[in-house]
Design a protein that fits this description.
globular, five-stranded parallel sheet, Rossmann fold, alpha/beta, about 325 residues
């Protein structure tokens, strides 16, 4: 067995252990758990959307228990200020002399829970932008590097709920995935009630550390992707734009703006991790199709007609995937 195969096998085992431990506390929502773990390993950030009480915050806390990383929580409220997130300079006195010392905010953690992120004003929401994209925080002209891994998992309530501020498009684009947390079924709810109201509470074990996550991330980035699959992703991104030749009729009718190139980068990064944790050292078209929806649903802006008719961005992604072939005609002829 080659060294790469050994590393890949270890990565699969670590991922499976993390998924199983998180599942001890989170009943059901298998796709949400896998999406969060893939986002964490990718080095991207994940936005969870759902009504209150569905376990979004518990999921993040459980992940922090399973992985030996620093965890911090930011509760977003309308009066939260940017300095409450990034930190600020404070005056200290030592030896009779006063000087400014930077006091780090909660953004300086490996796993950061941005709870109810759309409860805060756009000014405060934007404080996350530089940290999420660049891995730095700048205060008073000085930049401070964030530790690795750095993972923001934000939760938000549906935008039609009272007291919410829609996230700016520029900030939405910083999230690798947007995952929609839906209501549990009867059996899942019964299991939740049993585990949370009894005398025995599930306690997930710590099965991985920061070094393990960074090692899997590096291994995943080295996974090859065929040129025609790179082109497949490029055609998917272009097909989300209403004026493009690849766009299906539903895109032309209901979409105002399509995905940015970050959407394609997110698909490829996530597909590589998906292939790795499934025990394969190559990306398939199936991997791309499986991660396309969470990677694109928050990057497609509907026009007035689409919003008026209640069209969901997921339906646009489904139409795009149905219209774009896995293999271009030029390759089929060869």
């Amino acid at each position: 067995m080659s060294d790469i195969e050994v590393q890949a096998k270890k990565a699969c085992a670590t991922y499976a252990a993390m998924r199983d431990e998180v599942s001890k506390a989170i009943v059901g929502h298998r796709d949400i758990i896998e999406g969060v773990l893939i986002g964490f390993i990718c080095g991207g950030h994940v936005l969870l959307e759902g009504v209150p009480g569905l376990g979004k915050t518990l999921l993040v806390r459980t992940l922090a228990q399973v992985v030996n990383c620093d965890f911090s929580r930011i509760q977003f409220t309308p009066d939260l200020m940017p300095a409450d997130i990034t930190g600020t300079n404070i005056v200290t006195e030592e030896g009779g002399q006063r000087r400014f010392v930077f006091q780090r905010g909660p953004i300086f953690g490996n796993i950061v829970l941005a709870d109810e992120v759309n409860r805060a004003t756009p000014k405060t929401q934007s404080a996350l932008l530089e940290a999420m994209q660049e891995g730095f925080v700048t205060v008073a002209g000085t930049s401070y590097e964030l530790g690795q891994p750095f993972f923001v998992l934000a939760t938000q309530n549906p935008i039609e709920m009272e007291g919410t501020y829609p996230l700016p498009e520029a900030q939405l684009d910083r999230f690798l995935f947007k995952l929609e947390v839906r209501q549990s079924n009867v059996k899942e709810l019964a299991s939740i009630f049993e585990s949370t109201t009894g005398d025995k509470t599930p306690k997930p074990a710590r099965v991985a550390g920061a070094e393990d996550i960074l090692s899997i991330r590096e291994l995943a980035r080295a996974i090859p992707i065929a040129p025609h699959l790179n082109e497949f992703v490029a055609r998917i991104i272009l097909a989300t734009h209403p004026s493009n030749e690849f766009a299906p009729s539903v895109t032309r009718q209901y979409v105002r703006y399509g995905s940015s190139p970050r959407g394609g980068q997110s698909i490829i990064r996530a597909a590589k991790v998906k292939a790795l944790v499934d025990g394969r050292y190559n990306v398939s078209a199936s991997d791309i199709r499986q991660v396309a929806k969470p990677a694109l649903r928050h990057r497609i802006l509907l026009n007035f007609e689409g919003e008026a008719e209640g069209i969901r961005s997921d339906a646009i992604v489904d139409a795009v995937l149905a219209a774009i072939p896995d293999v271009p005609d030029t390759i089929k002829k060869l």
